[in-house]
Amino acid sequence: MEHESFISLGVWQMINTWINLFILYLLVKKFLFKPVNKILEQRKAAADSLIDDAQKDRDEAAEIKETYTAQMRQAKLEAGEIVKDASQKAEKKADAIVDAAKKQAGDLIERAQRDAEREKKKAINEAKNEISDIALQIASKVIEKEMSEEDHEKLMEQFIDNVGDESWQK
Amino acid sequence: MERAIILAASAIGAGLALIAGIGPGIGEGYAVGKACEAIGRQPECQGAVTRTMLLGCAIAESTGIYGLVVGLILMFANPLIGLL
Amino acid sequence: MEGARIFFRIPIFGGLPVTETMVNSWILILGITLLCVFLTRHLKLKEITKRQAIAEWAVQAVNDLVTESMGKAHVKTYAPYIGALFAFSLFGSLSSLLGMKPITSDINTTLGWAIVTFVMIQYSKIKYHGIKQFFKGFTEPIFVMTPLNIISEFATPLSLGFRHFGNIAAGTVITSLLYSALAYLSSVILGGIQIPFMQIGLPAFLSIYFDLFTSALQAFIFCMLTMAYVSSAIDD
């Protein structure tokens, strides 16, 4: 078997080297770099989209929180106003009720006074009758004579008018 | 006769060509010493220092290798004989 | 030390050789492509298998490397090329563990890759700065520096190629010398019988440095230097 020498330059061998290197470059690019680069980019895109989604969600949440706090503030204001309204109304109502009650009490007192007056008058009349009977009996016993109804009434009235104003006032 | 002179001269030349091995020996020894100093000063960077040192040594070795190649050519693929 | 074996010659243009290097690089292309297809079977978004994790780690490591050296704008263009170059160089040099002659121990391979880098640098310079600036750039600091600048431009691919070739080829030379020395030692111990039993075990320790460490390091350095040169051509 013949050998080349230890160092020998040959154009044919060098052309072979260039062709082999070029072929290997094309094969490695097609079979290793293209598919793996594709997968790496897909993975990076998935990770990026995940991060973007998370960021979007966070932004939405911040917005919602904003509107929520604004609404809460609004609600508090409205609640305060409602409470103020209600308490004012309640005060007015309370005043009205108290006035009505006072009026009713006054009426009651008036009525009671009137009743008391009437009772007094009734009592006075009854006492008048009783006294007149007793007085008539005493008088009939003392005088020993029968009186007529009119004399009897006249005597009774004189007696009562002298007595009544002092004792029944006690 | 001439062939003998050529062969003898080639042999001596090959021997002299390999004196070029002194240069990388000294230079790389110095570089390794500096690398050891650097590692001693900061032990965490040992990996990076070692790798850089090996890289530098391989490039500095080139001139020694050129001398070796000349020696090998003179011994095994002597072109001077063909010029006889 | 002989170079690559020539398997047969194609009988055109006066016999173009098909060398061991070429056959090995075809086998390597097949192996790397099968590995890529195997790793990217059934890719999923979640609950990834270990295979997919390895594939993603590899692609991300290459992407990060290119981003670090060249900035984010050029990742899409250069990352597959750097990945292919790194895989070719790494597995090319590691194939000596499987008994094949490593493809990078042939100067044509490494110099070919270095010339591709050289073309990339000049193309980037012309594309991003225009032709006038390209020619003016050689006279940059002072006019008398022009020949030195031109020489340093040509020295770039030469040094790239020879560094890679020298490391790997010298490794193979030393390993083969070691094997023959051990064979001689065993024949001396056994008193003349050619059973090289001393070749078992001992070369493994050296191959940790010469095969594993050197292959990975040289592949990495080749890619890093390519990226550094191209990014400096793009930027300034």
TrEMBL record, chain A:
Domain of life (superkingdom): Bacteria
UniProt xrefs under Pfam families: ATP-synt_B
Coiled coil ranges: 37-78, 102-133
Keywords: ATP synthesis, Cell membrane, CF(0), Coiled coil, Hydrogen ion transport, Ion transport, Membrane, Transmembrane, Transmembrane helix, Transport
CC per GO annotation: endomembrane system; plasma membrane; proton-transporting ATP synthase complex
Membrane topology, record value: Single-pass membrane protein
UniProt-listed InterPro entries: ATP_synth_B-like_membr_sf (IPR028987), ATP_synth_b/b'su_bac/chlpt (IPR002146), ATP_synth_F0_bsu_bac (IPR005864), ATP_synthase_B_chain (IPR050059)
Positions of transmembrane segments: 6-28
A molecular function GO annotation: proton-transporting ATP synthase activity, rotational mechanism
Compartmental location: Cell membrane; Endomembrane system
The protein's role, per its UniProt record: Component of the F(0) channel, it forms part of the peripheral stalk, linking F(1) to F(0). F(1)F(0) ATP synthase produces ATP from ADP in the presence of a proton or sodium gradient. F-type ATPases consist of two structural domains, F(1) containing the extramembraneous catalytic core and F(0) containing the membrane proton channel, linked together by a central stalk and a peripheral stalk. During catalysis, ATP synthesis in the catalytic domain of F(1) is coupled via a rotary mechanism of the central stalk subunits to proton translocation.
Subunit comment: F-type ATPases have 2 components, F(1) - the catalytic core - and F(0) - the membrane proton channel. F(1) has five subunits: alpha(3), beta(3), gamma(1), delta(1), epsilon(1). F(0) has three main subunits: a(1), b(2) and c(10-14). The alpha and beta chains form an alternating ring which encloses part of the gamma chain. F(1) is attached to F(0) by a central stalk formed by the gamma and epsilon chains, while a peripheral stalk is formed by the delta and b chains.
Full protein name: ATP synthase subunit b
Organism the protein comes from: Zongyangia hominis
UniProtKB/TrEMBL annotation, chain B:
Domain V-ATPase proteolipid subunit C-like, chain residue ranges per copy: 12-74
InterPro entries tied to this protein: ATP_synth_csu_bac/chlpt, ATP_synth_F0_csu, ATP_synth_F0_csu_DDCD_BS, ATPase_proteolipid_c-like_dom, F/V-ATP_Csub_sf
Membrane topology of the entry: Multi-pass membrane protein
Site (Reversibly protonated during proton transport): E61
Protein localization: Cell membrane
Function per UniProt: F(1)F(0) ATP synthase produces ATP from ADP in the presence of a proton or sodium gradient. F-type ATPases consist of two structural domains, F(1) containing the extramembraneous catalytic core and F(0) containing the membrane proton channel, linked together by a central stalk and a peripheral stalk. During catalysis, ATP synthesis in the catalytic domain of F(1) is coupled via a rotary mechanism of the central stalk subunits to proton translocation. Key component of the F(0) channel; it plays a direct role in translocation across the membrane. A homomeric c-ring of between 10-14 subunits forms the central stalk rotor element with the F(1) delta and epsilon subunits.
Record protein name field: ATP synthase subunit c
